[in-house]
Design brief:
The chain has about 600 residues and is α/β, with parallel strands linked by helices. The protein has 20 helices and 20 strands.
């Protein structure tokens, strides 16, 4: 079957460097491709080139006859249009009105809304409706989940699963990519690599490539070799630290679950109450808040302790940002009281990124035009500090306007995290971030020694970072559960948006660490003693056998990934390749289930030893 679109030896120069250098790619009619790369690597530019909106400096772009291509850009330009429908029906490739209306109904967007009054989520859904109504053969999606709530993301996932054409997607949403993609494109330093495994296998592939780069760099004595070695070691070490932090997160969730359970049906002991008071950061008592005649918060009582990482989820418009402002003291409640610890100092990073003036230089934003800055009491040179946030040191004198959206978000993180604070407030922090920056953000959140409040629609990010989740259903009710997004769905015993077109998957929930024979954390053991039964004979036998089963899964996953890495397999034996890909997905799921079971049994085993 002929490719829908082919790029041959594409070269594109931007800002004095080759952004794309000898890039070749063929997109087949049924491809589901994740395009991965750092902020600034050229992912959005490559999508625009695939769409034919820009021309390369060298090479050829070949499109199969009658192929329809639709691009959803990261920041569509609505200027000059009165209403969303006017924008959606403009241009020579505009969809038919009835098709647009049907797509808008599926995505629940009012296209009669004035553009200057539309929220980011409404604009995003209008762009999706236009693209879907065009019935493309090839769909190009640049951060399609930005500004969407989890219900809208679930609807989009369902539509894309049924989509008969091909698509290429750039996204920071790991759960979205894991559910939908079958192959990965990795754009790095102008070079495009392809591997025929879905995004679930990307990190293992990336570690292989980075390990080889590290070995090659070790043989060099040049400055380039040192920089490459630093990069590879930094990324690999960060992934290893992520695994350890997930184990600690499981212990914190168990402790929080035990505390939440202790308040139901029986009084807490006096000593425990005194200890919690000493650690209390915020306490809401019977809080009500209305806005425009609508109840946003209804009779909320909540205790926030030092070290809590609290996620806020809910539909767009449910009041997540308003609740953050309420807890921070920016607006008063209509009824009830909020008590805050004395000396509470907060850092707020909001959706609008207001602090970043495009005309200012990076050094102006970071250190008021100088070379040095104070990082939580330690004097650091700005160039060295920028490396901690994955910037090349030479970016210090670049204007903010020259940075990509993700790089600007990363600069804001660097600026704000330099300050001392006891409370960190993040409002949709994952928008515009690449996957490596998300790893960095997770690392910073995990190592922050204060309390974190985060409003996010990123299911995987919530699963990897928070110890407690507040679910706002839009009626004013706030549900409080211990754990992240997957825990919310599990503890409620239902899909939080039961009428959504698809179940939010929980695909790619917490990637638990590889089991070892070490003892579980004390917090997990305390929760197990309070909540769970002791191990029986069968459980002990299961605990002994699980490490062997996990090892077999890991061996098989490595075998399958090696087999699927052969591009010829997909042209020579496509049916076998698809069967192996399905087996790989099932084996990864079995591995995750066995690892989670091992952690649960290990915590109970420690309970038995302690008693």
């Amino acid at each position: 079957m002929a490719p829908l679109l082919t790029l041959e030896d594409i070269r594109l120069r931007q800002a004095g460097r080759w952004l794309l250098d000898g890039l070749s790619l063929a997109i087949q009619p049924k491809d589901r491709l994740a395009l991965v790369g750092r902020n600034g690597a050229g992912k959005s530019t490559l999508l625009r080139l695939l769409a034919g909106l820009i021309e390369p400096d060298a090479g050829r772009r070949i499109v199969s006859p009658r192929t329809r291509i639709a691009l959803i850009e990261q920041e569509p330009d609505f200027s000059g249009f009165a209403r969303l429908v006017d924008w959606a029906l403009a241009g020579p490739d505009a969809p038919l009105p009835h098709a647009l209306e049907a797509a808008a109904q599926r995505l629940e967007v009012d296209l009669a809304r004035p553009c200057d009054e539309a929220s980011g989520g409404e604009r995003r859904r209008a762009a999706l409706a236009r693209a879907l109504a065009q019935a493309p053969d090839l769909l190009l999606l640049d951060e399609p989940t930005n500004h969407l709530d989890i219900r809208a993301i679930a609807r989009l996932e369902t539509w894309l699963e049924r989509f008969g054409g091909a698509f290429v997607v750039v996204s920071h949403d790991r759960a979205f990519l894991t559910r939908l993609t079958r192959a990965c494109l990795w754009l790095d330093q102008g070079v495009l690599r392809r591997r025929e495994v879905g995004f679930g296998g990307f990190e293992a592939w990336a570690e292989e490539v980075e390990a080889e780069a590290e070995r090659a760099a070790a043989r060099l004595d040049t400055r380039l070799g040192q920089e490459t070695r630093w990069l590879a070691r930094g990324v690999t070490a960060r992934r290893r630290r992520n695994r350890g932090r997930l184990a600690r997160l499981a212990s914190l969730r168990a402790e929080r679950r035990a505390l939440l359970g202790a308040r139901v049906g029986r009084p807490a002991l006096g000593l425990a109450t005194d200890e919690r008071r000493a650690r209390r950061v915020l306490e809401a008592e019977g809080v009500w808040l209305t806005h425009g005649g609508r109840v946003l918060v209804r009779d909320l009582s909540l205790e926030v302790l030092r070290g809590d990482r609290i996620g806020l989820v809910g539909p767009n418009g449910a009041g997540k940002t308003t609740l953050l402002r309420l807890l921070m003291g920016e607006i008063p409640p209509d009824r009830g009281q909020i008590h805050r610890a004395q000396g509470l100092v907060g850092i707020t990073i909001d959706q609008q990124r207001r602090l970043l003036d495009p005309a200012r230089r990076v050094r102006d934003v970071l250190c008021d035009g100088g070379d040095w800055l104070d990082v939580r009491g330690e004097r650091r040179h700005a160039r060295a500090y920028l490396k901690d946030f994955l910037f090349h040191p030479d970016v210090l004198d670049a204007p903010v306007g020259s940075l990509s959206g993700g790089e600007r978000a990363r600069l804001l993180l660097a600026r704000e995290f330099a300050r001392r604070a006891s409370l960190l407030v993040l409002d949709e922090p994952t928008n515009d971030l690449d996957l490596e920056t998300l790893d960095l953000l997770q690392e910073v959140v995990a190592e922050f020694d204060g309390t974190v409040l985060v409003a996010s629609h990123d299911r995987d990010f919530l699963d990897r970072t928070v110890t407690m989740t507040l679910f706002l259903d839009g009626s004013g009710r706030v549900e409080v559960v211990a754990g992240g997004w997957s825990d919310l769905a599990r503890q409620l015993g239902r899909d939080p948006w039961a009428d959504a077109a698809a179940q939010p998957t929980g695909n790619g929930p917490v990637a638990v660490p590889r089991p070892t024979r070490s003892r579980p954390a004390a917090g997990a053991a305390r929760a197990a003693r309070a909540e769970g039964p002791r191990l029986g004979y069968r459980e002990w036998r299961e605990l002994e056998r699980l490490p062997e089963a996990i090892a077999r899964h890991e061996v098989r996953i490595a075998e399958l990934e090696r087999a699927l890495a052969d591009p010829a397999l997909w042209t020579r034996e496509r049916d076998r390749a698809e069967a192996l890909a399905r087996e790989l997905e099932a084996t990864r799921a079995a591995l995750a289930a066995d690892e989670e079971r091992w952690l649960a049994l290990a915590a109970l085993a420690e309970t038995a030893e302690a008693t």
